Amino acid sequence: QVQLAESGGGLVQPGGSLRLSCSVSGRFLSDYAVAWYRHGPGERRELVADLTSGGITDYLGSVKGRFTISRDNAKNTVYLQMNSLKPEDTAVYYCNIRGSTGRHWGQGTQVTVSS
Questions:
Q1: Are 3 and 24 in contact (CB under 8 A)?
Q2: Contact, 37 vs 45, CB < 8 A?
Q3: Do 43 and 114 contact (CB within 8 A), yes or no?
């Protein structure tokens, strides 16, 4: 059974940084493409960052240059480094992996950007 557990969310001031982590158990992360989604208040869920198993990345336009997705296959962990955070980045952030066993989601971690 594949399980994902996010951590690292919290309250941060505008301009601050956070690093989200997603620990994966039950499968080898190297077999999967990984992504981060977010669901803000009154908004649709949107793809924030994507990283294929081959190393190709894709980012939501509004986070390009500020957010970086990465993976450590040895630790079975996915990361999202978020810099220069803005109030509009406030959302629940979800880790997602996709591969031969389908798509799997974490429970989400709240990120609030506010002064």
A1: yes
A2: yes
A3: no
Residue 87: exposure state from Cβ atoms within 10 A (0-12, 13-18, ≥19): exposed
Segment 13-35, tens digit of pLDDT: 999 999 999 999 988 888 899 99
8 Å CB contact between 38 and 94: yes
* Ranges assigned E (strand) in the chain: 3-7, 10-12, 18-25, 33-39, 46-51, 57-59, 67-72, 77-82, 91-99, 102-105, 109-113
The answer to whether 7 touches 23, Cβ cutoff 8 Å, is yes
Q: What is the pLDDT of residue 114?
A: 97
Please give the single-letter amino acid code of residue 97: I
CA distance linking residue 59 with residue 61, whole number of Å:
6
Q: Please name every residue paired with 79 in a beta bridge, in sequence order, or none if there are none.
A: 21, 70
What pLDDT, in 10s, does the model give residues 39-64? 998 899 999 999 998 899 999 999 99
User: For residue 99, with 0-12 CB atoms within 10 Å meaning exposed, 13-18 middle and 19 or more buried, which class applies?
Assistant: middle
